């Protein structure tokens, strides 16, 4: 920098360090999902420093260059490529690395491939990013969250899966379209597995507290069930439909991850259907799945003891069983 460009203010402190550490996040995996997360967080001023890590170094460099070229249009953010060793003081590590579904493949089909990647990755994350909350996005996300918890030895609260945050968003969007209201004014949850056994909580769907379905044992609908219930099939099949057309889902999960990261770093106590270890709910134990949970600086601090109808309870227990059966086949030894 030419000396003549600036004049130093006479009593400024050359050793000045701001008294607050920048909010720093590491994204592992610069694929479609990782980059959608990076872009969404960048334009929503979520982090002050983003380190992106990928084994495909050419792609990684290109992605980082592309994002940096947009810096004149957003709030100041440091964006760089790096390794996990650059995440030493990171607040959050977002893991999107790994295999994704090919058309027709289920999320659970990915488990063996992604387990092998995580066996290498998670011990390194813990080693280098020891103060960070872990946010798992790689599929099958509930299983990968459980694996990360076991491989990391971190407290339960510190390991979050993006869970059914995306499915819940799809559910709210589709229902809101039907009722012609802003999706932010329509409250509804998908719980359980982020996958084929996920559960719609019809009994809690509401607009401004007005329930659209009774929570009687027979789930009797207030609105025309025949027209509304197929919406859940659209939610459940959404990823298959998108993947068949464009090869991956990315923007909506990027926006969802941004909400989770903001809930953590801004200590928002926001209720989100993230995946975390459930040890005692409706007979479910030792499995990671989604329930509406309070997310803050600790990670997942509490989850809601939802009152479910008998049908919903049975479906949730089945979802937990599907996940447990998959996990029991896994070998977590190094
Ligand atoms: P992608 O193939 O575009 O990207 C994956 C990236 O991971 C690649 O760039 C690859 O080089 C990188 N990678 C692989 N091993 C690595 C390692 N050891 N270290 C660092 N980087 C590594 O895939 P995608 O579309 O970005 O999807 C990523 C994952 O996210 C998939 O498992 C997908 O199923 C999942 N996903 C989850 C949700 C959700 O709601 N949880 C939504 C969409 C996709």
Fill in the keyword field for this structure.
alpha/beta; six-stranded parallel β-sheet; three-stranded antiparallel β-sheet; 37% helix; globular; binds nicotinamide-adenine-dinucleotide
Strand content: 15-25%
Number of strands: 16
Uncertain ranges: none
Small molecules bound in the structure, each named once: nicotinamide-adenine-dinucleotide
Largest beta-sheet characterization? 6 strands, parallel
User: How many individual helices?
Assistant: 10
SSE sequence, one letter per element: EHEHEEHEHEHEEEEEHHHHEEEEEH
N-to-C CA distance: 50 Å
Instruction: Indicate the mean pLDDT.
Output: 92
Largest sheet: spatial strand order = 3-2-1-4-5-6
In helices, the fraction of residues equals 25-40%
Radius of gyration: 21 Å
Shape: globular
By secondary-structure content and strand pairing, the structural class works out as alpha/beta
Q: Short summary of the structure?
A:
The protein has helices at residues 32-43, 57-68, 111-128, 141-152, 165-179, 225-228, 230-236, 238-246, 251-265, 310-328, and strands spanning 24-28, 49-53, 78-81, 92-95, 133-136, 159-161, 186-187, 190-191, 199-200, 206-207, 210-211, 270-272, 275-278, 287-290, 293-296, 299-303. With 334 residues, it is α/β, with parallel strands linked by helices.
